[in-house]
From TrEMBL:
<dbReference type="InterPro" id="IPR020625">
    <property type="entry name" value="Schiff_base-form_aldolases_AS"/>
</dbReference>
<comment type="function">
    <text>Catalyzes the condensation of (S)-aspartate-beta-semialdehyde [(S)-ASA] and pyruvate to 4-hydroxy-tetrahydrodipicolinate (HTPA).</text>
</comment>
<dbReference type="Pfam" id="PF00701">
    <property type="entry name" value="DHDPS"/>
</dbReference>
<comment type="pathway">
    <text>Amino-acid biosynthesis; L-lysine biosynthesis via DAP pathway; (S)-tetrahydrodipicolinate from L-aspartate: step 3/4.</text>
</comment>
<comment type="similarity">
    <text>Belongs to the DapA family.</text>
</comment>
<dbReference type="InterPro" id="IPR005263">
    <property type="entry name" value="DapA"/>
</dbReference>
<feature type="active site" description="Schiff-base intermediate with substrate">
    <location>
        <position position="162"/>
    </location>
</feature>
<keyword id="KW-0028">Amino-acid biosynthesis</keyword>
<keyword id="KW-0456">Lyase</keyword>
<dbReference type="InterPro" id="IPR002220">
    <property type="entry name" value="DapA-like"/>
</dbReference>
<keyword id="KW-0963">Cytoplasm</keyword>
<protein>
    <recommendedName>
        <fullName>4-hydroxy-tetrahydrodipicolinate synthase</fullName>
        <ecNumber>4.3.3.7</ecNumber>
    </recommendedName>
</protein>
<dbReference type="InterPro" id="IPR013785">
    <property type="entry name" value="Aldolase_TIM"/>
</dbReference>
<feature type="active site" description="Proton donor/acceptor">
    <location>
        <position position="134"/>
    </location>
</feature>
<feature type="binding site">
    <location>
        <position position="205"/>
    </location>
    <ligand>
        <name>pyruvate</name>
    </ligand>
</feature>
<feature type="site" description="Part of a proton relay during catalysis">
    <location>
        <position position="45"/>
    </location>
</feature>
<keyword id="KW-0457">Lysine biosynthesis</keyword>
Amino acid sequence: MNLSGVLVPLITPFAEDGEIALAALEDLAYAALDEGATGLVALGTTAEVATLAPDERQAVVEICGRVCRERGATLVVGAGSSDTRGSAAALLALKDRADAALVTVPSFVRPSEAGVLAHFAALAQETPVPLVVYNIPYRTGQSVGAATLRRLGELPMVAGVKHAVGGVDQDTVTLLADPPEGFAVLAGDDPFFSALLALGASGGILASAHLRTARFAELARAWGAGDVAHARALGHRLSVMSASLFAEPNPTVLKGVLHAQGRIPTAAVRLPLIPASQASIDAVLRLL
Ligand SMILES: O=C(O)C1=N[C@H](C(=O)O)C[C@H](O)C1
């Protein structure tokens, strides 16, 4: 398993009849890996996972798993909920189907940081695959500070964190100054990818990397190699594109752009998301 470089959380393309466009999904998966991504994330937020039926989720994981196996790439699968027992059951179902699970900090419940730690400690005892904690307080309503993130990173089956706090705050700097041994800190807010790499993040899980995948991979390599001048300039350019992609709720703009490029059959999203405006889509197309 490789939790460095760029992992692409795939969108779920829909056909005219509203069903998943499986062939287009497979094409996106191959394209991401062939253009330099180290892995894929199936069933992330970007996949509109909340709207997918169980059989649809299974089909997505099967396609992503097959493509990753063929390419020798890492597959991370989104799993779990705000219910610890239910999350443990969902993780058991990933045995032999994923290299790692992306597990969001329990949302809406706001269990306290001690509760978050207890949740992941319980999951770490039962999970058959390593866990990547998804820390995204502006979606979950639960903040997790650097001290708790360090303790999470010391749990035996916790391999990393997808860190998406909407900026570069003191906890981010503190964590990256001294992460636990073998604990991968992955940027989860696309516009801050370059900034987190500069601070020592191992990579990122980035919806934006459906586009210009090779350049995002190049950015990770440039920071890793200490090529600061190149990394800084490239990072600024990609960050502008990422910010435009997130001008409306993810993945609505991204889907509009992929459709305009002819890579997916429709730009459709499922409610409660609504399609992005043409102005937002055009703004990204102008930057490509
Ligand atoms: O699905 C994901 O994983 C991602 N989701 C984030 C979000 O929608 O908030 C964005 C990030 O690029 C990856």
